[in-house]
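Need a sequence for this fold. Nothing fancy.
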C-alpha cells in the first residue's frame, strides 16, 4: 500500500504540485551532504514514498553511492538536463536497485555547465523549468519527493538547485566554523527570492558526523543550537547523525548504509530523519501544510 504522499509540503505554493524538492546545501565540503541526501532518499523510498534523487555534483558521489557507473550514466545524466533545452527530465531518470527510488545521475561533465551555459539567459532556471515541464506532462510519472545533492560551492550548479528547490536541508558538522557558510547562504537565498522569484525555504539544519565522546563536539552542538534557535528559530533537526565507520564502509560498497547495514545506528538515524522530515513537511497532519521557516537575508556571524 502506498504511503501517504508528502502532500502539502510547500504549503500549496510548490510549482510542482504538492511535491517537495529538497536541496542539500552547504558550501563547506565533507559535511555529509551526499551521505544524507542518499540515505534520506533511501529511507523515504522504504517508507513507500516514490523518490527521485538528482545528483548535481560533478564528483557524482551520490550516483556512485547507488552503485551506478559513469558508463551507465552517460547520455541520461543531469548534464544533459541542464545544457540541452529539449532534453526532458524523464529521459535523464534511471531506476536504482531500491524500490521506489530513481536517480538522475551526475558525471564529471557537470563541471562544464558553467562554460556551456555562459551565454544562456536564465540559465539558473533550467532545472526549475525542466521540473515544471515534467509536472505539466500528463504522461509523466510522479514523485512524492525529489532530493538534490549539491556540490561544495555556491556556484551555478548550487544556484540552479536553489532556484528549483522548494526546501533546503543544510548538513553541518559540529566544528568551530560550522555556521560561517550559513551566513553567505542566507544572503544568496535572499537574492534568489528577490531576483529570481525562487521560493525556497529552510527545512532544517542537520547535525552530522557527531562524536558524542568528544567534549568539543558536545560544546559546539550546544552553542550551535542556542544560536540558531535564538536568531532563526527551531531549525535544528532533533535527529543527530553520529559518526560511524559503517557509513564510509557502505559508501565504498556502492550501497546506502540504510540497505547495507539496516540495523546500524546510522541507518536508524536516517529513518528517524525521514520521519522528522515528513513531519516538518506536514505529512503527519493529513497533508495540511506545516509552515516551513523561511530563511531570509538574516545572517549568523
Ligand atoms: N555519519 C558518518 N560517520 C562517518 N563518516 C561519515 C558519516 N557521514 C559521512 N561520512 C563520510 O564523510 C565523508 C564526506 O561525506 P559526504 O561525501 O557525504 O560529504 P559531502 O558534504 O557530500 O562532501 P562534498 O562537499 O565533497 O560533496 C565521506 O567519506 C563519508 O563516507
Ligand atoms: Mg557530496
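Here you go.
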Amino acid at each position: 500500500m502506498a504511503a501517504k504522499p508528502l502532500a502539502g509540503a510547500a504549503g500549496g505554493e510548490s510549482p510542482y504540485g504538492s511535491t517537495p524538492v529538497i536541496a542539500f546545501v552547504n558550501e563547506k565540503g565533507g559535511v555529509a551532504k551526499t551521505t544524507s541526501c542518499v540515505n534520506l532518499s533511501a529511507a523515504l523510498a522504504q517508507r513507500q514514498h516514490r523518490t527521485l534523487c538528482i545528483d548535481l555534483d560533478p564528483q557524482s558521489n551520490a550516483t556512485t553511492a547507488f552503485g551506478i557507473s559513469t558508463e551507465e550514466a552517460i547520455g541520461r545524466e543531469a548534464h544533459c538536463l541542464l545544457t540541452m533545452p529539449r532534453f526532458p527530465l524523464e529521459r535523464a531518470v534511471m531506476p536504482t536497485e531500491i524500490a521506489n527510488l530513481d536517480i538522475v545521475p551526475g558525471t564529471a561533465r557537470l563541471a562544464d555547465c558553467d562554460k556551456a551555459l555562459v551565454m544562456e539567459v536564465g540559465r539558473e532556471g533550467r532545472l526549475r523549468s525542466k521540473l515544471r515541464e515534467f509536472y505539466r506532462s500528463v504522461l509523466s510519472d510522479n514523485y512524492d519527493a525529489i532530493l538534490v545533492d549539491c556540490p561544495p560551492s555556491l556556484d551555478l550548479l548550487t544556484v540552479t538547485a536553489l532556484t528549483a528547490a522548494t526546501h533546503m536541508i543544510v548538513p553541518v558538522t559540529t566544528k568551530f566554523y560550522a555556521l560561517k557558510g550559513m551566513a553567505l547562504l542566507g544572503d544568496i537565498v535572499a537574492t534568489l527570492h528577490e531576483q529570481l522569484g525562487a521560493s525556497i525555504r529552510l527545512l532544517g539544519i542537520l547535525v552530522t558526523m557527531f562524536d558524542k565522546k568528544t567534549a568539543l563536539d558536545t560544546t559546539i552542538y550546544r552553542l550551535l543550537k542556542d544560536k540558531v534557535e535564538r536568531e532563526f528559530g527551531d531549525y535544528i533537526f532533533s535527529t543527530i547523525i553520529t559518526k560511524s565507520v559503517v557509513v564510509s564502509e557502505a559508501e565504498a560498497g556502492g550501497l546506502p548504509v540504510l540497505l547495507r547495514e539496516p540495523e546500524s545506528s546510522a541507518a536508524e538515524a536516517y529513518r528517524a530523519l525521514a520521519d522528522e522530515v515528513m513531519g516538518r513537511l506536514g505529512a503527519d497532519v493529513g497533508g495540511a501544510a506545516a509552515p516551513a521557516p523561511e530563511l531570509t537575508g538574516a545572517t549568523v556571524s
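For context: The domain at 21-285 is CATH 3.40.50.300 (Rossmann fold).
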